[in-house]
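User: Predict structure, ligand flavin-adenine dinucleotide.
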Amino acid sequence: MREDYDIIVIGAGPAAGVFTAMADSSLSILKIDGSREGGKPCGGLLAPQTVKALKDIGLTVPEEVRVSPEVRYIRTMDIGTGRERDYPRNYVNVDRERFDRWLNTLHGENTYELKGSAFEISEKNGLYYVKARLGCGNEVTFTARYVIGADGAGGITRRYLYKDDTIKRFVALQEWYRLNEKDSGFACVFHTPTSPSCSWIFTKEDRIAFGGAFEGKGSKEAFSEQKRILTERYGYDFSEKLSYEGCQVMRPFRKKDIRAGENGIFLIGEAAGLISPVTFEGISFAVRSGAALAKAFTKADIRETYENAVEPLREEIMRKKKRWPFMYRRFLRNLVLMSGYGAVRK
Ligand SMILES: Cc1cc2nc3c(=O)[nH]c(=O)nc-3n(C[C@H](O)[C@H](O)[C@H](O)COP(=O)(O)OP(=O)(O)OC[C@H]3O[C@@H](n4cnc5c(N)ncnc54)[C@H](O)[C@@H]3O)c2cc1C
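Assistant: Predicted complex:
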């Protein structure tokens, strides 16, 4: 295995998959991934803008990545007040692991994939050194002219670059259970006493997941309390637990929370802070930023070209933020739910 490359990509989520699929074939790329055990907490719902972003780069979600049931509407539930409404939505339901695997097989022979966890980045004379612990336990140092942080909300690249980073992070906790057919569907759950953020319920084939984004302190208790209300008051059957997942999730609220990178290090996807602060939809941003950076590598000034491509994404996220009070301020949320504006009439 060679140890020097043009580019080292840390992570193999959708952002890394799209970057390596679109990168110029003359670039030698090492992709290191594997810090996470088990799945990533994610709804695995592709919004219309994600499907469009994929289409714009010539990709269509394959049938084997899609799962049932289809999403026709999402129920918004305030389990504090008992108010709820169904809102029509047109998302593609996918198996997140299969989706990531698909995107990460689209690269050419110029990309070498390695299972391992990168744990240290350093720089000397314009060359980057990335230390990684491989699956067998060995530690190896790789070098490259560029490092791409595609390592999500909890990755090391953003932390290495921006010691002053103050982006808001939540802890996402999620459990999977055997589906009881009566519970099949999709819901966005609010409960202000236990979380300033939101939770979700979604189904995939014969499984149902309940998860939420919580403040780090007391997150497990908050998760348990919401689960208790959903089972006791709403009759959800979460009795047969299959698995548990956890990760960090970012909530960009200021333009400076979204950062493209410096010198020879670039950030794509959630590592850059590219995620909706309102719905936590992030795959469309991962796709668009991965594609934009691959294109920037064909230009003379990579940094400037990529920064120019990130700016409209930053603006889009700031526009999405304007919806925040209507979903997260209890008073306004209740007005919206009471009005029934945009909801399915029952
Ligand atoms: C609970 C929850 C639900 C969500 N639901 C949706 C949804 O339904 N639809 C949607 O569009 N978005 C959703 N999102 C957002 C979406 O999951 C992210 O925006 C998206 O995964 C970001 O992709 P990425 O490629 O940037 O990073 P990730 O998908 O986070 O991938 C990062 C990769 O880097 C790897 N990694 C991290 N650190 C290291 C390291 N040190 N060394 C090696 N590898 C490393 C990880 O193992 C991982 O494979 C959700 C997020 C959360 C938290």
